[in-house]
Structure formats: C-alpha cells, structure tokens
Predict the 3D structure of the following.
Amino acid sequence: GRAVPSPMGIMMLLIAWSVKIVAFGSEEGAISAKKMYENAKVNLKKNRGYLKNEKIRIIWWDIPLGFYNIHPWLEEEFGAVTVADLIGRAQYTCIDTSSEESMISGLSRAQLNVSMARHMRGPFEFVTDEFQQIIEEFSGDCVIFSQHVGCTHKYASAKILRDMCREAGLPALFLNTDIFDKRQASEHQIKKEITNFFRNSGLA
C-alpha cells in the first residue's frame, strides 16, 4: 500500500481479484473484502508492516506469474514486499441497484475498468498517467515488469515505461515470461534475474 511500511502484501490484492472473479456481488465476497480491509486497517493504525523487516518496495506493473507464486520467495529472501500491482489495482464504483437497467449498466462499467481493459481501449496516456500516479504515491524502490509474452500489445510500451522509470530514478527490470508456460522462463531463471537485478541496483 501507500503507507510505509506496507500494511498488507500482494497476495491480499491477488486474492481480492480472484474473489471478484468468482464471487462478484455475493455476500461471501463482501465478507472476504471486509476482513482484508479490517486487517490492513489494524496494521496501519499500529504502524505495523506486513513484513517484520521491510527492505524493498516493489511496484509489479504487469500481470503476475501463474505457474509459480514468486512473492513469498521475494518476501523471505529479500524482505521485498510488492506495494502496487496491475491486476490487484481494481477500480470500482458502487453499482446502482435501483433497477435492472442500472445494475447491468454498473456491471458493464465495472468490467470496462478492470486492469488492461481500462488501459488498452484508448490513448496510451491511459497507461502512462496511471503509472505516473503509482510512482508518485507508492514510494517504490524499484519496478518489475513480467512482460507476459501473450500481451504483445504492451511490448511497444516498454521503451516509454523504461524512460519514465529512469526519470523517476527507479531501477526497472523487464522480464520475458509467460503467465502459465514456464518454458518461456523457468522459476530458476526468473529468480536469478531478479536476484541479479536487486544486487546490481544496490537493493540487496
């Protein structure tokens, strides 16, 4: 989160995204979201971080790895917590339940505002403006892009985003992965690249 230290970790955001997919609008989904919020609020009030010893704050500005959950390794090995990510950054407004038409309209707007859908349906400023806001608000020490090979529409943006990181003084790592297919980049390879990146950037 924006707070230093971060009161919650990336897994809560990813779980919230998953819950949204399978339990959108359900009572169970609301209960889950409320518990996440309350836990984070307690940590924030006590100025207690999700990690006992937060050393590196990562902005993970791409989709997560599906074949391997790398975040526990990052936390244990480097004290690195992901404070902002692409998928977990869900932007929703309240849905008007006064009529069937208003509910359908609200659900449609919600889907238009999910990650990637809200970025790739207009000018590239939809991406850069939000990314600049993340840089300014989340006090990141570095940025990691997983660069999912299937998202070729984003590959042209790498140079622009790299330049933005450079201007902000943020070390940036551009991986070359596939969300599900580890033949593109194995767990071992990804760990090696991240380790070298942290060391070469003076973060570890």
User: Anything to note?
Assistant: The first helix runs from residue 10 to 23. The first strand starts at residue 56 and ends at 60.
